[in-house]
Write a structure and sequence with these properties.
3 strands, Arc Repressor Mutant, subunit A, 4 helices
């Protein structure tokens, strides 16, 4: 599986933008790909970035002339990790262990 630490900053930004969009996808626009938002000047990602994301199965570019690239389950999982990148266990026992290990 593609891990969060193995993807670049452009892919991270594209995943975050797609995840924040109402349809969780990127759309082809002039100059590349962008998420549909209310922002008057949205970020446009290059086709190279989308191709890399497609190779890692983060978006579904099912054909060469696709107009929409929805996030896959794997892309959604990575987007959720981007929103909450804490590496610790949130159970009470794990949180106590993490907290007690940091006190020196």
């Amino acid at each position: 599986m593609t891990e969060l630490r193995s993807i670049g900053p452009q892919q991270r930004a594209a995943i975050a933008a797609a995840y924040a969009a109402p349809d969780q996808s990127l759309h082809r626009v002039r100059g590349g790909w962008s998420a549909r938002t209310d922002d008057p000047s949205p970020t446009v990602f290059t086709t190279r970035t989308l191709n890399a994301m497609s190779r890692d199965w983060l978006v579904d570019l099912s054909d060469e002339f696709a107009l929409v690239a929805p996030l896959t389950r794997k892309g959604i999982a990575l987007a959720e990790q981007l929103r909450d990148p804490q590496p610790y266990d949130r159970s009470e026992r794990g949180y106590v262990a993490a907290a007690s290990g940091s006190q020196r």
